[in-house]
Structure to design on (324 residues):
C-alpha cells in the first residue's frame, strides 16, 4: 500500500496514469485553498467529471475500506481535503455537510489568522479561538480530520490538546532539519506522536534542506531522525506535489482574496513561481524510489511499508468515521 498524504497537482489523465505507474494507491487531494462553500462544491463537481472520465484509473474514497477496494481494482483512491476552513464559512453546521460531501481533512488555518486558529505567517499566535474549539469538537464528532500543516505553534499544540481524536500534519518537515516557517518544532512533533497523530513528510522544495538540490539520502536520514523522535508508526509521506501547475496558481495559493499585493511567502521574491522539484521526486512515478532510500538509511521492510502507506491507512481507519 502506497499513500500520499497531500498533493495539489494540475489533475489530468497524464497525472492519473503516472499514479498508477508509481503504484500510488491513494492520494489526499486539496480541493480548496481559499474557496468558500459553493466554490468548493464546484471543485467537487469537477472531480466528479474526472471520476466519470477515468474510471479505470481513479475512484473516490472516504473510508479505509474504500481505499483497500481501490487498490484491489488497480485504481488510485482520491480523498478530499481542504487546506483552509473557508468552505465552512462562519457556519459550524457546514462541517457535517462537508463531511457528507466527501471531505476528510480540513486545516484550521492557512498561513493567516482564521476564525478558528492562527497561521504560521502571523506575528502573534493566540491559539485556538472560541469558535475553533467548537469546530474541533464537531470535526471530531463527524470524522473530519483536523490538519494543522499551515498553523502556528501554539494553535497546533492547542488543537492537539483539545481534539479528542488524533490529528494530522499532512505535509511538513522538522524545523530542526530545515527552519522553514511551515516546518514543525520537536515540541509539536512529540505532542503529535504522543496523541496518536500522523506527520506526512513534504517534498516541496521550500520545506527541504538544500531546496531543489536536496538529495534522497538527506531526505531519508531526516525521516530516520524523526522516527527516533516520534516512532516510525506515526510518520508517512505528504509530498505536497504541485505537478504541472502554472505559476499563476502560486499567486492564488498565497494571495487568495485577502490582499491586493503579491505575497511571496516561502521562497524568494526573485523567483515567485513554483520551485523545481528535487531530482529524486519529480512526479508520482518516483514514489517507489523512496522505498530504496528508506532501506538505505536502515529502515526495516515493515517500517518502509508503514511509512509509504500502511501508517496512513491505519490512521484513516480510525479517523474518518463518526466518533465511537
Amino acid at each position: 500500500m502506497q499513500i500520499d498524504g497531500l498533493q495539489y497537482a494540475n489533475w489530468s489523465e497524464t497525472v492519473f496514469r503516472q499514479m498508477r505507474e508509481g503504484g500510488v494507491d491513494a492520494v489526499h487531494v486539496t480541493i480548496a485553498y481559499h474557496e468558500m462553500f459553493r466554490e468548493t462544491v464546484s471543485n467537487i463537481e469537477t472531480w466528479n467529471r474526472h471520476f466519470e472520465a477515468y474510471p479505470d484509473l481513479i475512484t473516490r474514497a472516504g473510508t479505509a475500506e474504500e481505499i483497500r477496494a481501490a487498490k484491489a481494482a488497480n485504481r488510485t483512491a482520491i480523498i478530499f481535503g481542504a487546506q483552509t476552513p473557508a468552505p465552512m464559512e462562519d457556519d459550524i453546521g457546514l462541517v457535517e455537510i462537508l463531511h457528507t460531501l466527501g471531505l476528510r481533512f480540513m486545516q484550521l488555518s492557512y498561513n493567516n489568522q482564521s476564525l478558528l486558529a492562527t497561521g504560521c505567517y502571523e506575528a502573534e499566535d493566540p491559539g485556538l479561538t472560541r469558535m475553533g474549539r467548537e469546530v474541533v469538537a464537531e470535526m471530531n464528532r463527524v470524522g473530519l480530520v483536523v490538519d494543522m500543516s499551515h498553523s502556528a505553534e501554539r494553535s497546533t499544540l492547542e488543537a492537539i490538546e483539545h481534539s479528542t481524536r488524533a490529528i494530522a500534519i499532512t505535509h511538513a518537515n522538522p524545523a530542526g532539519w530545515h527552519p522553514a516557517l511551515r516546518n514543525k518544532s520537536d515540541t509539536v512533533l512529540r505532542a503529535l506522536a504522543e496523541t496518536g497523530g500522523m506527520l506526512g513528510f513534504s517534498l516541496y522544495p521550500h520545506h527541504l534542506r538544500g531546496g531543489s538540490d536536496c538529495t534522497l539520502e538527506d531526505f531519508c536520514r531526516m525521516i530516520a531522525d524523526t522516527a527516533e523522535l516520534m516512532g516510525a508508526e506515526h510518520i508517512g509521506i505528504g509530498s505536497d506535489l504541485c505537478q504541472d501547475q502554472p505559476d499563476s496558481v502560486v499567486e492564488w495559493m498565497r494571495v487568495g482574496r485577502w490582499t491586493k499585493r503579491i505575497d511571496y511567502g516561502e521562497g524568494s521574491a526573485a523567483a515567485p513561481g513554483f520551485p523545481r522539484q528535487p531530482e529524486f521526486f519529480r512526479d508520482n512515478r518516483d514514489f517507489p524510489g523512496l522505498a530504496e532510500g528508506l532501506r538505505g538509511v536502515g529502515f526495516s521492510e515493515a517500517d518502509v511499508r508503514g511509512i509509504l502507506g500502511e501508517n496512513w491507512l491505519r490512521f484513516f481507519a480510525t479517523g474518518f468515521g463518526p466518533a465511537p
Observations:
- The first strand starts at residue 3 and ends at 7.
- The two ends are 26 Å apart (CA to CA).
- The first helix runs from residue 13 to 21.
- The chain has a mean pLDDT of 95.
